[in-house]
Amino acid sequence: MTQRSVALGRVPLVPVALAFATGIAVAPVATTTGAWAAWALAAAAAATALTHARLLLTATVAVLVAVGALGTLRATALPAPASHVSRLALPRVARVEGRLDDEPTRWTNERTRMMVNVDRVDDEPRAGLVQVTAYGLTPSFTSGQRVSFEARLDRPLGFLNPGTFDYAERLLRHGVTVVGTARGERITSLDDREPLWSVRLRRATVAAMREALPPVSAALLAGLLLGERTDLPPDVDAAFRRAGVYHVLAVSGFNVALVASTVWALLALARAPRRLAALGALVVVGGFATVVGPQPSVLRATLMAGLVLVALLLERDASVLNGLALAALVILAVRPADLHDPGFQLSFAATAGIVLAPLPRNRLAAAVAVSAAAQLAVLPIGLAHFNQLSTIGVLANLGVVPLAGLATVLGLVAVAASAASTTLAGWLFAAAWPVLLALRGLVALAAAVPGAVVHVPAPGVLAIACYGAALALGLTAWRRRLTHRRQARGMGAAAVVLVGVSGLLTLWPALRPADGRLRVSVLDVGQGDAIVIEGPDGRAVLVDAGAGGPYRLDAGERVVAPFLWNRGVLRLAAIVVTHADVDHAGGMAAIRDLFTIREAWDGAPQAGPLALGGATITPLTAASEGRNDAARVLRIDFGLVSVLLASDIEGPGEQALVASGAPLRATVLKVPHHGSRTSSSPTFLAAVRPSVAVISVGARNVYGHPDAGVLGRLAAARADVYRTDRDGAILLDTDGRTLTITRWASRTTADHCVDPDTLC
Amino acid sequence: MSLYTRRQLLLILLATAAAAAGFGIDRWRRARPELAERLETLDRAARRDPLPRPLRAPGRRSPTGPSTEPLDVNRSSEAELGGLPGVGPALASRIVAARPFADVDELRRVRGLRRATLDRIRPLVTTGR
Q1: CB A745 within 8 A of CB A727
Q2: Residue A455 CB-half CA count within 13 A
Q3: Which one-letter DSSP state was computed for residue B73?
Q4: Which of A396, A425, A607, A621 has its CA 20 to 30 A from that of A323?
Q5: pLDDT, tens only, A424-462
């Protein structure tokens, strides 16, 4: 037997877990029938092959395929029964009764989110999950409590743009097909249920921290100890992300290991026998996991710690890698949707990286190696989900991890002490305070380093596969560097090449030469405007960035920035804020933070025109008064194609524009003010004469935009209407003669001929 | 070279077979609930009406018992009140706390008792006056 098979023979569950995960990953593109067929064929093949001694390899492959097919079957949704909430006619206002599926999350005093496992809707039996957002003061409820309330039910809404996160899709993966809004103070409970001991302990712990520590430090300790981040100020949260040390704010193997070793150490001090210490640690770790809740990283760490401790109890060797695979299998069998969860991926990748990496003898070098191994392993995951690469992370972790560990242990001991004496617990919390301050200082310092975070396009499947292969090759090369020197050298070289290929594939959108086409993308940011102009010379201009600000979805950060990064736009030639309304300017703060910007057209009355290769962006002067009417109107010209971005101007602004004699005739009109009744007057439309009208408007907005009259006027002007509420992002792409328009929601494209002399 | 021994492979194969059987049966039961219910009652079918049982009237959580006598909201116990459709233990205890009631409409002052619930329990309750 070779070295390799011995190594794999010790971790029999790794291939099984990988096969199961692959099955779940392909589920979106597989059919149930196909999965059944694959399972039956593979099982039959495996059974046949097993009867022949020589076909062991075939049998192995067939068995793994069968496991994969099982993963696919597990992940494909079951047909919803007729009484499922997804079969309700929506939207509707209904009285909902059901049980809370987990502890409600209180975002602010005014907004609470609850997952309700419904049993009745309007007094008829119904089943399924509904995610409810309660506004106003919501009484304190607990998991498992039966509640009754009146809610407005509807389907979840996500923003549909290329390369951005779709909230509705994520909810759907977790089985949520209906969302609701309710008044918090009108939610009544149908049974008076006491919260579970774990919830009470969690609440008491958070309360004790708040009592003993200043608010921000208390919130930070709650994050370190319990993974509870709702009270953490957004700037502190952002600093942890920038510094690449966000993992300390999620409960993970780090916390579980600290809990286990603290208990172990205390019991060992008390001269308890080894087995008793293991048993004690096992019980406390289980309790800790119950208190902090069922996130994938907690489950993983607890399962693995449990395995190690049981192995100690039984006095056997535990293979950490096999334990990791078992944890993955258990979590994925129970909650297959977790495979797509960044927390699951980060947790498993970081652990695998740390376990597999070769560690030097020297303590300091080993610490650096652990930090580097974890960062290398999570790199493609951070890029794929957040477009984010932390350059300072490896270094920052060297200081942050010990401080976070010290604070966590002090916090844990304080919580344990609070059972005996609140005064004693208060002192211990006070002792943690300087540690927390030092931690915050260090993180703020690391986050302030220029270039601490680099943003790049999300890598594709191929780039990630190249990177993974490179890591595997590099690792094998390192292991064989003494025994098979030449082979190892070849593998090392191949790994370097693969990393290069992977990097090139990832950065290609940013590196590719400009192709001389003008692209204007009207993004779906709900009710608001965000328009990206990519010029023929490759430079980009952003006009407005949707809504933004604290305690709401920041379209600048969540939609516009990822869209730009994934298009390979890493810096902006100019940003334009057409006017100060929050649905246009709100998201721009995040853009200013995240991008290098050459020119900002916000305050200056006379800026531009700006030439982008053959295209020109010219600001037009509208009325000088009125919040909306004074909005900046832009005109883009490229060859025979022209686009008029009319922002939010209304009647008077339109009149002023027409009267000013500015060139208004345009192929494409970004319809003013989300298609409101007060805009798009017949005079204005007659001056613009658009062939294409794009309305940037939020689905189910409270203003009733777009107005039926406006739609009628656009139809009368014979413009083709595109709307972001139904079509998702509207992507215009032109060479100056023909205009190709894509509706992102349906991925359909249409061509418009602008040049009368060419056919298309 | 092989990853697994025969015995290990056989074990994994049996595990997938058991899981697949579970999935298949679960799916089939969800797709044909009436057939599944028929199978479940096969051994007791002789004593039952062969026709499917009439569905419970919508809106009734549970039958309030054989008695058709209206409940006296001023005298009944919390448990009796809790058996009324739309009234849970919490609401029942609030009804008890809000006693006495001069007439049934006065039940409206009980927090959490909606008009719809009141209309449903109106034929089932009295104030005993």
Answers
A1: yes
A2: 21
A3: T
A4: A396
A5: 888 999 999 999 999 999 999 999 998 888 999 999 999
Contact A177, A225 (CB under 8 A): no
In percent, the amount of chain A with pLDDT more than 70 equals: 97
Which residues is A636 bridged to in the sheet? A617, A643
pLDDT in the model for residue A746:
93
Residue of A nearest to B13 (CA): A63
Q: Which of A81, A293, A305 is nearest to B30 (CA)?
A: A81
Whether the Cβ atoms of residue A550 and residue A542 lie closer than 8 Å to each other: no
Tokens representing A158 are: 């996500």
Q: Dihedral of CA A454/A459/A464/A465: which sign?
A: negative
Question: What SS3 string covers A547-597?
Answer: CCCCCCCCHHHHHHHHHHHHCCCCEEEEEECCCCCHHHHCCHHHHHHHCEE
User: A215-225, pLDDT tens digit by residue?
Assistant: 999 999 999 99
- Cα separation of the two ends of chain A: 65
Q: Read off the DSSP letter of residue A558.
A: I
Strands A748-753 and B71-72: what pairing? unpaired
pLDDT exceeds 60 at position B117: yes
Find out whether A131 and A146 touch, Cβ atoms under 8 Å.
no
The vertex-A86 CA angle with A80 and A91, nearest 5°, equals: 165
CA A48 to chain centre: 45
Judging by DSSP bridges, how do beta strands A176-183 and A146-154 pair with one another?
Answer: antiparallel
- Distances in whole angstroms, Cα of residue A631 to Cα of each of A578, A588, A701: 5, 16, 21
Torsion, Cα of A718, A720, A723, A727 (10° steps):
150
* CA A545 to mean position of chain CA atoms: 19
Average pLDDT over residues A615-632: 80
Tokens 């992102």 label which residue? A744
Say yes or no to pLDDT of A651 above 80. Answer: yes
Which structure tokens are listed for A196? 């579970």
CB atoms B6 and A47 under 8 Å: no
- Tokens 């809740």 map to which residue? A293
* A59 at interface of B, judged by CB pairs closer than 8 A: yes
The string of pLDDT tens digits covering residues B48-81 is: 444 444 444 444 444 444 445 777 888 887 778 8
Strands A641-645 and A668-670: parallel
Nearest Cα to A23, choosing from A82, A61, A73, A60? Answer: A73
Q: What is the mean pLDDT of chain A?
A: 89
B16, B78, B115, B117, best to mutate vs chain A, most A CBs in 10 Å: B16
Looking at residues B76-95, what average pLDDT do you find? 80
Token pair listed for A647: 């922002």
What is the per-residue pLDDT across A674-700, written as a single tens digit (0 to 9) for each?
999 999 999 999 999 999 999 999 988
The answer to whether A330 faces chain B, any CB pair under 8 Å, is no
Question: In sequence order, which residues have a C-beta less than 8 Å from that of residue A265 and are 6 or more positions away?
Answer: none
Model's pTM, two decimal places?
Answer: 0.82
Cis before A706? omega within 30: yes
Task: Locate A416 and state its tokens.
Answer: 């344990």
Q: How many Cβ atoms from other residues are within 10 Å of residue A443's Cβ?
A: 26
Q: Residue A440 and residue A221: Cα distance in Å, rounded?
A: 11
CA distance A459 to chain B (A): 32
Count CB atoms within 10 A of the CB of residue A558.
19
